[in-house]
Amino acid sequence: MKLVNLSVFAADLINQLRKQFGTKDVVVTEDAIRIANEIARKATEEYGHDFKALGEVGKDNGVLLGELAGFSDDVTTTLADVKKRIYDDILSMLFNDAHAKWGHATSLAGVLPKDENAGYMQYTGLGFRSNATFTSVIHYVKISDNMVSEEAKFDKTKVVTANNNTKALQEKLDLAQSTYENAVKASQEAKSAVQSAQTVYTNAETALANARTHLSDLLGNKIDVPALEKALANAQSKLEMILRHCKLLRNHLLLLSQMLLTKLRLLLKLKQLLRLLRLNSQLLTNLLLQPKVNWKSLLKLMM
Predict the structure, then answer these.
(1) What is the pTM of this model?
(2) Quick check: 43 and 129 in contact, CB under 8 A?
(3) Rounded Cα–Cα distance for residues 62 and 65 (Å)
(4) 136-142: strand order across its sheet
(5) CB 149: neighbour CB atoms within 10 A?
(6) Each residue of 235-284: pLDDT tens digit?
């Protein structure tokens, strides 16, 4: 993934230049990256192009290869260091290339050679190595359609772009974000568990201290055990007395409730009797008001 990232980074710098010249963008492919690194593994020249390695790798892949190369003895330990090397290489090839009759600069700018049979940088990929003299040697492979044979192993359709590279990086970022969030959650849960454990521990320490104090008091006869036993017996006696009183009170309450129930029933009967008396009184009054009083009926009513 780092090789892909670095090749895309270099291509982006080159294509910014080509946009100014109005020339076609260089394209990064998986096979161009593979071929560039095969050249880097085979190359043995300390400085300059290793044409033997270019020829052998080109023959193995059915492609006539060209390359640009950058050499540096600067310390290169991080990805940012390597990107700086790529940037410096491109600047040097653009503005310090008189010794090569500006061949590196025209390749980067996308200017096509006058000779139609000459190769140019249509596809590229980067290969990396170091040697006893230089800490950083970068091979910028040059491949073009007119240098690819019909039986070539070079597949120009597997293009690597900033977009699909960004997608892979986004997936890594999402995974890293998810891992970070899970780690934060686990950390919070761990902190909560530690706090709970600390509370339990503190309570246990307090209980232990209290127990030690009581034990010390007992061993030092600071607690009057007989007095405590007597107080306990008195409390039990009082409790028994209260329970007896509660029982008596409960019995009294039951008796009172029965008496109230009896009186309530008597009161209901009296109300019924009073209702009958009122009714009979009304009937008696009505009979007395009649012209001819039926005394026999009256007497029966009064009986």
Answers:
(1) 0.55
(2) yes
(3) 9
(4) 66-72, 136-142, 126-129
(5) 13
(6) 888 888 888 888 888 888 888 888 988 888 888 888 888 887 777 777 66
- The Cα 237–Cα 243 span in angstroms is 10
First to last CA, the chain: 124
Q: Which residues contact 2 (CB under 8 A, 6 or more apart)?
A: 79
What region does 101 belong to: left with phi over 0, alpha with psi -120 to 50, or beta?
A: left
Token reading at 207: 């209980």
Say whether pLDDT at 287 is over 80: no
Q: Is the four-CA dihedral 2, 127, 164, 162 of positive or negative sign?
A: positive
Sheet containing 159-160, strands listed edge to edge, beginning at the edge strand earlier in sequence:
123-124, 27-29, 159-160
Alpha-carbon distance of 269 to 178, in angstroms, equals 86
36 and 49 Cβ atoms separated by less than 8 Å? no
| 224 burial level (CB within 10 Å; 0-12, 13-18, 19+) | exposed
Please report how many Cα atoms fall inside a 13 Å half-sphere around the Cα of residue 302, on the Cβ side: 10
Residues in contact with 94: Cβ distance below 8 Å, sequence separation at least 6, in sequence order: 17, 104, 105, 108, 109
Crossing angle for the helix pair 30-42 and 51-61, to the nearest 10 degrees:
140
The CA distance from 76 to 70, in Å, is 13
Q: Which residues, including other chains, have CB under 8 Å from residue 97's CB and lie 6 or more apart?
A: 103, 104, 105
